[in-house]
TrEMBL record:
Residues 79-281 form the ABC transmembrane type-1 domain. The chain crosses the membrane at residues 21-41, 82-104, 116-134, 168-188, 220-238, 258-278. PROSITE patterns: ABC_TM1. Belongs to the binding-protein-dependent transport system permease family. It holds the Pfam family BPD_transp_1. Its main location: membrane. Keywords: Cell membrane, Membrane, Transmembrane, Transmembrane helix, Transport. It comes from the Bacteria. It is found in: Cell membrane. It is a multi-pass membrane protein. InterPro entries: MetI-like, MetI-like_sf, UgpAE/MalFG_permease. This is Carbohydrate ABC transporter permease. The keyword Cell membrane applies.
Length: 288
């Protein structure tokens, strides 16, 4: 009798777990998996919408060849400058988020207020609002225009790197404004480090600089990786992303092929970030 009860309770837990996860599975299959498979199918077809329905004409790898080889300007002219810009923006956002999270973890008057201030833009700022700010030239640091840093950058840096760097500087405030989620992740990660470790370090005579490098930074390593992944994905779907605008065209086959190529590039970029991060962590642990 007890065995039957144990089996029935175990089965009941499985059923409850399945019911809890069922909405996510249904949503994933209906709203993510099916559109992905459908767009992959359209990338090999010329899609034409008529009064009688949707017509498909197989074209094989024609669109992929056009994007990658025949008409490289459709992808490379905008993608390469954006990749250079992303390489600069990722460390800026991650380092800024880490420093702000450490400051917000300190005990001071109005700490909760400042935490809300840094996270509010994530809630209220939609992609269209951010894009409108960028279009109007908002987000520029005042001293950049005052000291004409843009002209110095154009003079001393190659044009391929000067343009992305100037773009970052001209919207620097908005970039930092878009760091709310990363700050929240670092703040949660900082609170996982026990205060007793810091107390022991202070007793041993460690100063705040040594404490940061020996305790805080190693303890936040998993959260740094998480923020790197999140920042890469966030940047590649940023409102000012030039590739996203080219995906939304009436040529559904070509747009689908471009979207899938862009998806592969994002995965490759993530792989490079993970590889560099693993090499850096291994070298730092070996040095210790």
């Amino acid at each position: 009798m007890n065995r039957k009860l144990r089996l029935s309770s175990a089965t009941l837990r499985k059923v409850e777990g399945s019911l809890f996860i069922a909405p996510w599975v249904i949503g994933f299959l209906g709203f993510i998996a099916f559109p992905l498979v459908y767009s992959f199918y359209m990338s090999f077809n010329r899609v034409k919408i008529t009064a009688g329905g949707v017509e498909y004409s197989p074209v094989g790898f024609q669109y992929y060849r056009e994007i990658l080889f025949a008409d490289g300007g459709l992808l490379y002219n905008d993608l390469l400058p954006f990749l250079r810009q992303a390489l600069m923006m990722i460390p800026v956002i991650v380092v800024f988020s880490l420093l702000v999270a450490i400051l917000l973890n300190q005990k001071f008057i109005g700490r909760s207020f400042f935490r809300v201030i840094f996270f509010l833009p994530v809630i209220f700022s939609t992609g269209q609002i951010i894009q409108e700010f960028i279009t109007q030239g908002e987000g520029t640091l005042s001293f950049v225009q005052e000291f004409e840093l843009g002209s110095y950058i154009n003079t001393y840096l190659p044009k391929a790197w000067a343009a992305p760097l100037n773009s970052i500087i001209n919207s620097f405030v908005l970039i930092l404004w878009y760091s709310g989620v990363q700050i929240l992740i670092f703040l949660a990660g900082r609170q996982t480090i026990s205060t007793s470790v810091y107390e022991a370090a202070r007793i041993d005579g460690a100063d705040p600089w040594e404490t940061f490098w020996k305790i805080t930074l190693p303890g936040l390593t998993p959260f740094i990786l998480l923020n790197l992944i999140y920042t890469v994905v966030d940047l590649f779907t940023f409102p000012s992303n030039p590739i996203i605008s080219k995906v939304n065209t009436t040529n559904y086959g070509l747009s689908s092929a471009l979207a899938w190529i862009y998806f592969m590039i994002v995965l490759l970029f993530l792989g490079i970030v993970l590889l560099i991060f693993s090499r850096v962590t291994k070298s730092s642990s070996g040095a210790k």
